[in-house]
Amino acid sequence: MVEPESYRRSIISNKNFRSSSDTSSSSHSLNVVYKGDYIHNQKYKNPERKQPLVPNRGELPMIHIEDHHPAIIEKDMWDEVQKMRAERQKSMKRVHLGFEKEEVKNEAFTDIFKCGECGRTVGFERCINRKRVQKLDDKTGEIERKKIKKKSSVTLFWRCGYGLQNMLQACDAKQFNQEYLEINFQHLLVEMISNPEFKAYYEKQMDELEISEEELSMEKQLIDRMNELYQKLYEAVDEELNKKGRDSHRIDMLTSKIVAIQEQLKIYTEKREQQQFLQSEMVWFFNSYKLQDLLGKKRIRNFYGFDQTRYGKSLLPSKVLETGLKVEEASFNRELFERLIESGIIYKDGTMVFKLKVGLEWSAPVTYKNYKKLITKRRKLESFLKRLDFLNGPKIKKLMKYCRIPRTSHEMLAFVGDVMTIEHFRTTIINPLVEMDRLKRTIPENIYSHDQKYYTES
């Protein structure tokens, strides 16, 4: 064994060192012990932790001692194995495709909403759904994208902070998509403009903040009383200034009475200021925003708007979804949100109660169930439009030319070349084309005939 005096030592930078016990590095690196080296203080005893030894993350200086003990493998072989493991790791590396659109946290919601179940702050979480592809060539870095139907996606949601923790008694409140919170705020604005009940509520609050005749009389009496005390205070100060020894007991008594009256008058002042602030903000909002502006660009391409004689019954979705939402596209106005909203409460079913900075509280008649219907409707609509695009695409146009001579469904499927069953081909392509009057049947009186063929007149 090598003597301690002959050890070759080098101080390891805590900033750049990663322990071999780390899961992130152990997959592609061997411990230096195999080649006869030793790292001092790689683990240490932390009295604040229950474990006997914990990995050193830079808390203590580490020393790399070379030739500490007889090596199990030669250093050249150890280096070669390291290179082989690194190359293998590189070849197995998967490349993540980019996101379809940039998704970021809405900072305006931070520390604003509380959970309606337990009262804790609603926090932010992000769920990433990564679509991976194998890297074909390490030199060129080319990626085979044909195997991936969609790019990576990210879902942003907000949930009760207690429910995010792994506890036995965690809150069972649901997580809500960030877009739902934005759409709910849009519905709140629509309610504030279009709902007569909100305007009645606003007028009632204005009446409650109005100073009554009795309060005006009380305020006048307090002002008169305060002026009398001020006069007495001036006289007391003049008397005390002419004396050699000052007795401030009377001055303190008068001052405390004046302060008490000022506190009472402050109530009326705050009431006037609150009424003025409420009126100015609501007038500004009603004058600045119109209902059509808040509704935004609602999807007008609904399922009722398509002509069945042109597009075919088999192409239309089996069920038309009514989401119950007036706003189906989030056009979130952060500046408006920060100006109007002070806080909010989110309940288990997705009902949101907003507290406005002007002192009003209101909620939109929207639940998370409505939002889920919207998501389903979007998917159906996107699928519907994709099928329309396919039936109007170049592949179907070639099929139409091919069917100038009557063809069987099997011949048409072979010509298209898609891997699908004949029944699926009839349902998704042949039947819609026939209903759209782009294909004709040779035996229309018996559509299930084995001798059935299809042709086009154009």
Strand residue percentage: 5-15%
In whole angstroms, the N-to-C terminal distance is 93 Å
Helix content: 40-55%
The biggest sheet, with number of strands, parallel, antiparallel or mixed sense and barrel status, is: 4 strands, mixed
The structural class is alpha+beta
- Using the CA coordinates, give the radius of gyration: 38 Å
Instruction: Please tally the β strands and state the result.
Output: 16
Structure characterization notes:
The protein has helices at residues 23-26, 75-91, 178-194, 196-209, 213-241, 249-288, 291-295, 308-311, 334-340, 368-391, 394-402, 409-416, 422-435; strands at 8-12, 38-40, 43-44, 54-55, 62-66, 94-96, 113-115, 122-129, 132-134, 153-160, 176-177, 341-346, 352-356, 361-363, 440-441, 454-455. By secondary structure, it is α+β, with helices and mostly antiparallel strands. The protein has a 4-stranded mixed β-sheet with strand order 7-12-13-14. The chain has a 3-stranded antiparallel β-sheet with strand order 1-5-2, with no helix packed on it. A 3-stranded antiparallel β-sheet has the order 8-10-11. α5 (213-241) packs antiparallel against α6. The chain is flat and about 120 Å long. The termini are far apart. Residues 1-7, 11-28, 145-149 and 298-306 have low confidence and may be disordered.
